[in-house]
Design brief:
Blueprint lengths: L20 H11 L3 H9 L7 H16 L7 H18 L16 H17 L5 H23 L3 H13 L9 H13 L3 H13 L2 H14 L8
């Protein structure tokens, strides 16, 4: 691939509502590079139901994803991110006034889980086993949906990564789609992603009248799914 698709942004942000002291204590320890203490705080509450446990799992996932104070284990990190995806899948079915946005649950967990899946699927595509390659294709299809879900909850990096995937035709069974790439870059740009906006502008300059019309139509089909900020 021409561009690096993995994004390891490890800045941690607390939800606007203060959940539990252990989250804050863990974050302070993390900021001081005391990862062992941070892990201890977050492990103590990771099994709590609701947002508190999900945030703790998310923070622990970051530690394992990057090997901070623990042996790096991206499979374990994915397992820690996954419960947030399950929770958000349910929220997508709730009426608009009950939807919970980025400050309530760690949407970034869905993005991180998807990027781990991307790396895994691309490795699986190199296998001599046909079933393994078919599984890789399925994973690539699913992770695109997962990134869309995160993007709909205003996670700009997820839309940006989808744009890169579309632009490069990532995956042996997928083709490049510049129009869809423009859509994802545009949405990410509207959410404040500067590099995505540059990518969108470059693609737009390449499009003719017909392609611009089709791209705008696709963009408008996405807009109803974008959640308002809460």
């Amino acid at each position: 691939m021409k561009r690096a698709l993995m994004s390891f942004l490890i800045g941690l942000t607390l939800p606007f509502t203060v959940w539990a002291n252990a989250l804050e204590d863990g974050r302070r320890a993390y900021g001081a590079s005391d990862y062992a203490s941070a892990r201890g705080h977050w492990e103590s509450i990771q099994n709590q139901k609701g947002p508190t446990g999900l945030w703790a799992k998310y923070y622990l996932g970051v530690l394992y994803e990057h090997g901070l104070g623990v042996e790096q284990d991206r499979a374990k990190a994915r397992d820690l991110y996954y419960p947030t995806f399950v929770e958000f899948s349910g929220y997508l079915m709730l009426e608009e006034d009950k939807l919970i946005a980025n400050q309530a649950l760690p949407i970034d967990a869905i993005h991180r889980m998807s990027m781990i899946d991307l790396s895994t699927a691309l490795e699986m595509e190199q296998s001599d086993d046909r079933k393994m390659r078919e599984k890789a294709t399925q994973m690539l299809q699913e992770l695109r949906v997962h990134l869309d879900i995160a993007g709909f909850y205003r996670h700009a990096e997820s839309f940006y990564q989808l744009g890169l995937i579309d632009l490069e035709g990532t995956g042996k069974r997928f083709i490049r789609n510049k129009e869809t790439a423009w859509v994802h870059f545009t949405l990410a740009g509207e959410l404040g992603h500067l590099q995505a906006q540059k990518e969108a502008d470059q693609l737009w300059a390449e499009f003719g009248r017909v392609k611009r019309k089709d791209a705008r139509k696709t963009l408008e089909s996405y807009r109803p799914y974008i959640r308002p900020p809460y």
